[in-house]
Amino acid sequence: GPISGVNKDIAVLQCHGDCDPLVPVMFGSLTVEKLKTMINPANVTFKTYSGMMHSSSLEEMMDVKQFIDKHLPPVD
User: Fold this and answer.
1) SS3 17
2) Burial class (CB in 10 A: 0-12, 13-18, 19+), 4
3) Is 1 within the bounds of a domain?
4) Whole-model pTM?
5) Domain contains 62
6) What is the count of structural domains for the chain?
7) Is 16 exposed, middle or buried (0-12, 13-18, 19+ CB in 10 A)?
8) Cβ neighbours of 11 (radius 10 Å)
9) pLDDT in tens, 20-41
10) Which residues pair with 7 in a beta bridge?
């Protein structure tokens, strides 16, 4: 069911390659839709990467860095 308290407003970034042979992108889409029913859907971001398999890419890592920079306080 829905998450309560401060966790309902947590920001989530979910990334997925559109050519992933191990976890089809359809399962990523289903997961993100389920997440949106549990927490504030405005705080859920789902990004797909063209041609990416079950791996990572520079584009994805740049998106992760941007997400972290936006949502976490800087380290002194």
Assistant:
1) strand
2) exposed
3) no
4) 0.87
5) yes
6) 1
7) buried
8) 14
9) 999 999 999 999 999 999 999 9
10) none
Q: How far apart are the C-alpha atoms of 1 and 35, rounded to whole Å? A: 10
Burial class (CB in 10 A: 0-12, 13-18, 19+), 20: middle
- CA dist 59 and 57 (Å) reads 5
Angle formed at CA 12 by CA 6 and CA 15, multiple of 5 degrees: 170
HSE-CB for 12 with a 13 A CA cutoff = 19
What's the confidence (pLDDT) of residue 6?
Answer: 78
CA distance 53 to 74: 32
Rounded mean pLDDT, 11-23: 97
Average of per-residue pLDDT across 31-52: 96
The CA-based diameter of the chain, rounded to the nearest angstrom, is 41
Residue 48 lies in a domain: yes
- pLDDT at residue 2 tops 80: no
